[in-house]
TrEMBL record:
Documented EC number(s): 2.1.1.14
Pathway(s) per entry: Amino-acid biosynthesis; L-methionine biosynthesis via de novo pathway; L-methionine from L-homocysteine (MetE route): step 1/1
Name this polypeptide is given: 5-methyltetrahydropteroyltriglutamate--homocysteine S-methyltransferase
Residues the record lists as binding 5-methyltetrahydropteroyltri-L-glutamate: K19, N126, W574
Binding site for L-methionine: I444, G445, S446, E497, D612
Listed Gene3D superfamilies: 3.20.20.210
Cobalamin-independent methionine synthase MetE C-terminal/archaeal domain: residues covered: 439-759
Keyword NAD carried by entry: no
Residues at which Zn(2+) binds: H655, C657, E677, C737
GO biological process: methionine biosynthetic process; methylation
HAMAP family: Meth_synth
Residue numbers annotated as active site: H705 (proton donor)
Amino acid sequence: MVKSAVLGFPRIGPNRELKKATEAYWNGKISVDELFKVGKEIRAANWKLQRDAGVDIIASNDFSFYDQILDLEVLFNVIPERYAKYDLPLIDTLFAMGRGLQRKATETEKAVDVTALEMVKWFDSNYHYVRPTFSHSTTFKLNGQKPVDEFLEAKELGIQTRPVLVGPVSFLHLGKADKDSLDLDPLSLLDKLLPLYVEILKKLAAAGAVDVQIDEPVLVLDLPQNVQDAFKTAYTKLGQEAGLPNIILTSYFGTVVPNLEAIKGLPVGGYHFDFVRAPEQFEQAASIIGDNQTLSVGIVDGRNIWKNNFAKSSEFVNKAIAKLGQDRVVVATSSSLLHTPVDLENEKNLDAELKNYFSFATQKLTEVVTIAKNVSGEDVSAALAANAEAIKARTNSSLINDPAVQARVASIDKKMSTRAAPFATRLPLQQKRFNFPLFPTTTIGSFPQTKDIRINRNKFAKGAITAEEYEKFIESEIEKVIRFQEEIDLDVLVHGEPERNDMVQYFGEQIKGYAFTTNGWVQSYGSRYVRPPIIVGDLSRPKAMSVKESVYAQSITKKAVKGMLTGPITCLRWSFPRDDIDQKTQAFQLALALRDEVNDLEVAGIKIIQVDEPALREGLPLREGTERAAYTVWAAEAFRIATSGVANDTQIHSHFCYSDLDPKHIKALDADVVSIEFSKKDDANYIAEFRDYPNHLGFGLFDIHSPRVPSLEEFTAKIENILKTYPAEKFWVNPDCGLKTRGWEETRESLTNMVAAAKHFRTKYQK
Ligand code: MET
Ligand SMILES: [Zn+2]
């Protein structure tokens, strides 16, 4: 019999139980024991769900209160001294590393003030991990034994699980050197780190674990030779240790072929490869499976929500069986299911036809099981027939094809993606219109999304208040935000985005060709979840989406208000895309819809328009090569299609956050002003890359993911530091990202200090 495996299950709970619990804990509303109890309940429910679905190989240690990489940092004591010194309980140290912590001293607790570690995108997904940060003083040791505890917890429920750990090479390679140890190559710590893997794996074996899933996702990246070599060092060492569980070396999100030599012949029990993302790697990847090793065939998509095609998948798995025999093949999800919503059955409002095309994490359990049964020769004909029916219906659906949209995309020409004049010509015209001072200040768009806003949005959704009442409410929120910005004296104002639940979903809901869920949450980072809309068909904009709010905001102030849109790439990346046409076409369809919106805003008197592209970087194909080169061209083109229809003195802004963006990619957009994440960087080389770039740049000066308030001195020092490398004439001042997750109090204090810092330099440089 061919076994079925699931590499990990969403840990947020079917109704976001984890978010509610962690946030309640942070706010002091529940105790740590209550928090842990919620975690335990979620784990138990997930394991039982998988067992009841008939999954043979179920993961444990896929749970995390914040992030699985951060868990490892704490487990291995990769805790920078600035956190360790407070001697907090481990869970609080973990949260402090993840989100920063600032609290005043009380009778029982000392004061804490520490920023969060860097947060980075998990490969090309919209999940973010907390970057391991190593220094010369890092002393590896085990703090607790989370993987063992959770394994035992499942065992107690009568469920044998396969613990999952991110492997040593990925853990080091995904990390970085801390500020005080910039000469440190994290990989040089491998020898010191490996004994901890041995120790934890021994404990797992002693607890009864037979197999472990060790994730080495960096295998899908271009790796320098020393990183490639590290696989041999690491896994040979683990292979030499007696009494460890069987290691299943796991990769996902791409092809391993360029790194095949590095993992060939390792003393592991088997390999897992992602054949959803990289089916073409089959022959080569399968060729390294040794006589006593298994191949886990990742065939059920862990990253998208489309129903699996059973016939096609079974045929694929059968190729592996023909080569290796039934005993050595496992049918698996391509990656952890962390990136998909929990359960399609929670969707009550979804069109029945569409629902029949989708599969969420819970449904995917049945998919792996069914495919495994099918290739084992069990009779699953009813399931196969229903599946074939659904696949066929989707291909032929009238919800999908729109000839007018297809024709418009076909007629796109170069002119559409080029501004009327180059930046050098536009700049003086814009300067004349706006007359900004040096170091102009602005924010990135959203202001705190208070409880009141959420309550009113829900009331409106449920029909408890009328459209008119809701509009009044939104206007009052906009007014509040405008007055606030005037009061603290920002230069370019925003309307605050109170009407938006989410920057992509809000537009998705107004674009034809999109479907959206009511409960399809996916973890983005920590307790932040997103509900990606689903691109089901050709995309178009029936009517203006954001004009009303921006125009209202502009009507009540003399200062310039910038319109706020989400760019085509971000709309694409933060949605579940179609898998039946390419991403470029979907991006261009979105770009055309947004172009109409940009032009409508301009006509309505909004002369600064920001088109956010925070997901530009995450869309970049993971490896160098033709696909990546093509992406950088079409992604920039999509942005320019959206933004090039405006007059020269209309100012286009764009915004990027949480990503190591290549300045080249930013430049290709030709936006007049770009804001980039900078609160956790102070890399002069990075700044220098922008020195010769004529367009203007806003450095994100504080971390909006953290409630801590930077002082005036902190802002001043930061700006001073950037000015060593970057000229004052092109320097904008702004936060790192939107403020929607923050409270009002800290927002007021932070922005006030930020504006004061800008004014300080304004005076200094005007002399
Ligand atoms: C993740 S980027 C967010 C940009 C958006 N305009 C906001 O301020 O919320
Ligand atoms: Zn942002």
